Amino acid sequence: MVIEESQWLGKLVEKDLLEKMLSSFSKSTGLKAVLVDIGGNTLVSPEKEIKDCRFCQMIRSDGTGIDKCRRSYARAGREAAKYGEPYIFRCHAGLIAWAAPILLDEYVGSIICGQVLMWDPEDYFLEEIEEMVKGLDVDFSGVKWAAAQLDVMSSEKVQAAADLLFVVANQIMKSGLTVLEQRRKIASQQARLAEEIQARKRAEVAIRTIESRSLRLYSLEKEYELKAKVRNFEQEEALHLLDHLLADIIGKQMEDIDTLKTRIIELLVIISRAAVDGGADLNDVLQLNARSYRELLDKKDSDEICLWTKNMLKTYMDHIEISKDQKNLQATQKAADYIRENFRQKLTIDEIAQAVYLSPCYLSRIFKQNFGCTLMEYLAQVRVEKAKTMLKNPQFNVMQVAEESGFEDPGYFTRVFKKVEGVTPSRFKQNAL
């Protein structure tokens, strides 16, 4: 997306936010930072918090000086954008400054900070300053005196200030890119809806009464399908169906925003009921409904409403997934409890699954996801833990321990125990006594 440099500031990043960021930076560092466009023109400046140094005020008192400052800022910004990192430079008047680029799809501006010295101003430097400002209508002796009064910063402090400025620039970029991404989504949604609407127009029939009835039946059918897709947690298919329904609604209520909102509320009711049927918590869904209705009232644009509706569909389906995850966790915990209570018996996966009312295949999958091991591996761990406790008791021998721990075959008990603990039961018992 190409944005004219005169427009990007107000449309992508709130000016109040920019002023607050630059003001905070200036107050914390004592250094003035300004936001400039790609031509070096100042867009935002914390003028109330910190003024230009006396040196810069004298240079900028001349129109040529202002123009040179602008060109110097523009060049530094381009260099910073080229490498995507802070760029430390010497301005046209000889002072040290640094630039942090603002990149929003393309280079749109930079933050300039300075101006300081990095060395004590000796005679040759002051003579150099006089040479660099020739051609300006300024008092040369006053300029040299002002240069001599500037703060001297070490290279480490200059680099640290440049890095901090880059953090501020990145925050601005993050804010701007969020707006850009929202615009892309709306544009993409608008394109899809426009294509769908055009397809509908090409398919219009001569008798509008018949067409109206047909479209209503079509919508009812699609709404029924949408409810089924949401309930079965088929998200991609549900989003595709919602695109068709939104195109149908927009095509008929393009000019009436209130009627559009009413139809969207009807869709949300369908979606929310399907979410509850799919396992979402009823109280969570009711709270989400209340929030969504309030949000919808504030929407003014049909494209924004459509994108918001799709995001709400995803949110409802997220609640289904959360509920499923919670139920799966409860089911696997019950399975683990059942194993710990019945480990002495000859357990099978089918028996454990039957105890928690799930299919063996599904329980095996979610148990591995939540516990990181299979049902049989967990059973072996429980039995080995019981065996370890008994092996520490002198009155039990290895065969007794194997039997009491649920192992019918002492040889199998030895193999499993060694696999889990790294030693045989006999060695473990010797070490424990």
UniProtKB/TrEMBL annotation:
Keywords: DNA-binding, Transcription, Transcription regulation. GO terms for molecular function: DNA-binding transcription factor activity; sequence-specific DNA binding. Residues 333-431 form the HTH araC/xylS-type domain. SUPFAM superfamilies: Homeodomain-like. Pfam families: HTH_18, PocR. The keyword Transcription regulation applies. PANTHER family: ARAC-FAMILY TRANSCRIPTIONAL REGULATOR, REGULATORY PROTEIN POCR. This is AraC family transcriptional regulator. It comes from Formimonas warabiya.
